[in-house]
DNA repair protein REV1
Amino acid sequence: MAGRGNSHRGDNGWGEWGGYMAAKKRKLEEQFDKDSSNNAKQLERKSNIFQGISIFVDGHTEPPADELKKLMMEHGGVYHAYYSKDKITYFISNNLPYAKIRKLKPNDKVINSKWITDCIKENKLLSTHNYEMYKDMTRSRGQTELNFKRAEPMKPITSDFNVPNSDDEDDHSSASETEEAPTEDDDHQSALDAKHPKFLETFLKRSRLHYLSSTAVAKKVYVQELRQKPEHRQLIEKRREELKNTIQRTERDYLFKIHDEKKEKIYMHIDMDCFFVSVATRHQPELRDQPIAITHSKGRKAATTSEHQFYSRSELASCNYAARQYGIKNGMYLGRAQELCRNHQAKLLCLPYDYEGFHEVSDRFYDTVLSYTLEVEAVSCDELYVDLTDLLIYLKPLHPLTFVALLREEIQINTKCPCSAGLGSNMLLARLATRQAKPNGQYYVEKGYEQEFIAKQKLIDLPGIGSSILDKLQQTFPQTTVDTCKQVQNLCSLEQLKNILGKKQGQTMYDMTHGIDTRILTKDYLPKSISIDINYGIRFQTFDDLTVFIKQLVLELHKRLKQARQKGKQLSVKIRVRAPDAPIEPEKFMGCGRTDDSSRLVNLHSYTDDPVNIELETIKLLKQMNFIVADLRGIGISMTQFQSALKNTSGKDMNGHRTLFDCNQFRVPKPSSTTVENQADTGEPSESSVTRKRPMQQEPTTTAVPQKVSRLDCYTPGQIDPHVMNELPEPIRQEVEQYLKNPPSVLRQNSESDRVEVVEKSFTQVMDHLDEAVLNELPPEMRREITMAQKLRKMESKYPPIGGKRLIPISVPLNPVIQEKSNAFNVLMNSPQKQPTTTTKKTSIPVKRWRTETILNEEPMTTTTTSNVRTESKPQSFQQQPSIAGFTSLSDVKLMLREWIESSDEPNQIDFDLFQNYLIDLLNSYNAEMVHQLLSYGLLQLKPLTSKSQWIKHFQSLIEAVQTRFRQMYGGATMDLS
Ligand code: DCP
């Protein structure tokens, strides 16, 4: 290099120019100037709008750098091939690599190249404001330290598992404050967008919304599962007993009267105080006197700087009561909270999230309450409702607040965190009472004081009442302030409220302002949807990139389905695609910006949580949606229509209705033949727990022969469903248990061959043993089930088994064509496919002329078989026979249909879907006659019932779906159902 020197340029030969690079830059600038003046001669100078502006272009731009250079020349600006802070006015780039973004200084402006073309279009110099890229990251900080881990969603939780829109996440300006030393490793640092394999993991790990929503689900599932465990009930009994014997009762306890016979409810709402802060300080309670907040930012900068123009926009997840006295609130920006503290010469202590601690404390909190009762509705990680009625009756004489004080003390010992509790005659009053009690207190809205209490409650404190509702009210009464329940009581009648707020909201407002709440605990967890939704960091170049990410998303969805013990039948995919006129990079770093959203949905063949299946369907849906992968900004996958693996509390489905399949729970199939049992072994969860819910698996890969509900799976004395037992009122349970402890001698036989008979007999005896008065004590659902069982028993005894089958007459008149067979007898209680038979059955060869293909025999449509033949060629014939709830024969299905219709006024959509699928399966197996029979029968049942308008509506749409399939199969013909 020295040889290249020349004396007047100094030692290195480039001294005068400041070195090689400087010389090179200078040369290029000269080149540009020269080009400009040369080009100016060729390229017509079109304007001077960029006079005095010089740009440097980095990375891929649209139009490309060469074109921008030309445009600058044409419009009086300067293009620099090398970056020089002093000479460059604007740094133009549309997509900077992460490493470069990190190096940007606070005042560095990166402008989208669209600014240049837009200026030219408008023929004037536009403000760069709307074209600035990454500005959230380069402002308000001394030095850029992008820290992905701090990207946190801040949206209030609205539904199970939905990761919030990135638009609701913490602002990145705060996420990158200098005082926050990044603690994540480089891997996470570079997990900036969804292409990075650790993106999702990092995102979720750091997402407090994910923590809150997944914990809420986990708690609901936990409580529900605990109800199934007899050992837990024993624990409760033990704990209650201990408590009963050790409580030091005072006069207050003896004076408190609980009306057992009226069963007047006492609800408790219990909530940990400033949960995140309490957990974070549980080992240093001495800190709690000072204002503390949980936030991603450590908050040092704003506390020390005298300039307050750059507020930290990191949100406070939680703040303690010492902070609240200065006006600080959960969800407030850190900068604002610091300012409020400063105004009071106080300092806000910012502590980080302690997710492990949250889990631990939440578990202990729940376990403490659950050790006394299962009458619990889980709400969130730190909040639940309890129906204390039975417990207080058991512990009497006891004032509710005595129990609550003991419970809270125990929670404090177990968790090292304080909590508050409210009590009242309904859930609303209990919840409002908790507010009154906080922090670390308890409050009971006693009987007779409800109106006084509710009257002074602020409207804004009523659950679910937001500012928009309050605004509507206020606008109606501009002359007066409307902010307490009393004011609404005085100002508006129910009708007026309905007029102002709409029917539903008006009624709710009326009830709440009058302290009315008829809800009871929701014990069965039924999510409406389970989904994963990511609207942050979505930047893909190719469809392959996207599919890699889809795999991760689907695995997360699968995890959520598993955790919630749900399988879904409907899958939908939602995408957010950059709007055509929106900048490629939105103002918010890695955000969505303005998007056009669309979604697609598919009904799956069967309930599933299988990630492979879901992935496949998701990709299929995505391929159907026309979009440019590079413009994708958000994606969500969601499952709906669930089949729950959770046992519910009362033989109802998760919507609180009895299901189609519950209607069969007292039907007693014969002991199954081994052959069929084997066939039914699909690897699905034990059918004994599942069959009553949704026994039908339509997955082509699983056998079409579902296992039937056996008597042993139903309520038997020896194995009476613990669930049902748990639901029985105490005296009745004791009665039944007593009976079971001393069963008739026949029960003690346990020879395998006699077992079913013994069990059936003793079941009858238990049923008969329950006298009318006892029955009347039972909840209506249970009473109905027992009455139904008794009826069936009577039927069974009236029509004793004949030739191994129990026969009962069916009174419904049938089509003349089939009258003879049907009028004979229909088989109830027997699973036809489980009957070994030597009789020749109807051929299974499909005949397309449906009128002549009448399959009304009580056996499944099979080829000629004997039981032995079946064993050998087992699945084939059975798999072809559509079944529902394990039943295949017309009479069985009809009986089930009738019971189902009778069971509730509002049918369950999932049952309808299953029934519809079953009918279509029948059509597909050319058994249109049976479809015709079932539909006619259903209509006949529904016709006289005025209360069944919902049913009729559903049934009509089911008929339409069936007719559509029928038309497809039979050349446009319609099934005559007149
Ligand atoms: N939380 C959150 N973001 C939300 C809502 C809640 O991070 N949008 C977290 C922080 C809270 C915890 O959930 O500590 C419980 O929420 P609460 O509404 O019960 O609030 P706190 O427990 O903080 O305070 P309070 O004593 O008022 O219940």
About this structure: Residues 156, 208, 212, 271-276, 317-318, 330-331, 382-383, 438 surround 2'-deoxycytidine-5'-triphosphate (CB under 6 Å). The chain has a mean pLDDT of 72. The longest strand covers residues 595-608. The longest helix spans residues 20-42.
